[in-house]
Amino acid sequence: MITTARNFFTGCPDRPEGIASGRATSGRGWARASVILLLFAGSAASAQLTWTTESVVLSVEANQEKAVAVYDFFNAGPRPVRVSGLRTNCGCAQAACAMDVFQPGEKGQVEVTYHVGTDPVSSKLVTEVCLDGSQAPAVMLKLDVTIIHEFICSPRLLLWRRNENAEPKVFEISAVGEKRIGRVSADASPRVQSVEIETVEAGRRYRCRVIPKGTLEFAIIPLKFTVEVEHEPPTFLKACILIK
Fold it and tell me: Is 229 exposed, middle or buried (0-12, 13-18, 19+ CB in 10 A)?
């Protein structure tokens, strides 16, 4: 089996440099990720491979662990073709091919597994499928993943200026899908003085007032909100306090 070899872009493994984040919508929250596979091959090899799947669209819930896209191809030429390697630019995606050599007429698949994670955001991902030889133009195989969020935290970050009075500021937890919130709780850092959660609309909206312990020094303070729904696993929403 040929699997992802290594990342070939620098920067954060879960959000490559130069890639913009997703945006919120007025209905169900979502983020979109695009996976582009670049196929580099010598002219003979690239002419032999015929791709029957070049674009895949997937929709997944934010609490899913992963989504898998499958790209089918077959060797339409008179000679064997060898897949020499697979590479992605992001630790959140892995590519695999069950075999490395495909005889004339033989079929194959490239599978890309996108790991949704606990805090899904929009990313643009690139996977390189390398064949023997590297002179031909790239072939693009595309994947669009729409991540559906049932619950959102807004804003994701609260800012206090250094030496600013540590007055309370507010995060809001909302249900944007059909599911109703049973309970919201907060897991805060010791650097947070207090978190008070108030029901604005039962099952739909909750206001979380937060006060840091002090604002004298620069700090990045993570928070995690747990959204509980009856008879379902909890959903975790990440937020952050920035003292700057």
Answer: middle
pLDDT of residue 200: 97
Which residue, among 39, 35, 59, has the nearest Cα to 48 in the 3D structure? 39
Per residue in 25-72, pLDDT (tens digit) is: 334 555 555 555 555 545 555 557 788 888 888 888 777 788 899 999
Residue 138 is classified by DSSP as: P
Exposure string over 142-152, b if 16+ CB within 10 A, otherwise e: ebebbbbbbbb
Residue ranges in the chain modelled with pLDDT below 70: 4-47, 89, 117-139
Q: Domain residues of the chain, as ranges?
A: 2-149, 151-243
List, as one string, the DSSP characters of 23-50.
---SSSEEEEEEEEEEEE--HHHHHHEE
User: What is the pLDDT at residue 124?
Assistant: 62
Torsion-angle region of residue 231: left (phi > 0), alpha (psi -120 to 50) or beta? left
pLDDT of residue 27: 41
The stretches of the chain forming alpha helices (DSSP H) are: 43-48
The model carries a pTM of 0.62
Provide the token pair at 158: 């609260």
How many CA atoms lie less than 13 Å away from 203 in the CB half-sphere?
5
Are 2-149 and 151-243 in the same CATH fold? Answer: yes
Structural fold of domain 2-149: Immunoglobulin-like (2.60.40)
* 151-243: CATH superfamily: Immunoglobulins (2.60.40.10)
Note the pLDDT of residue 128.
63
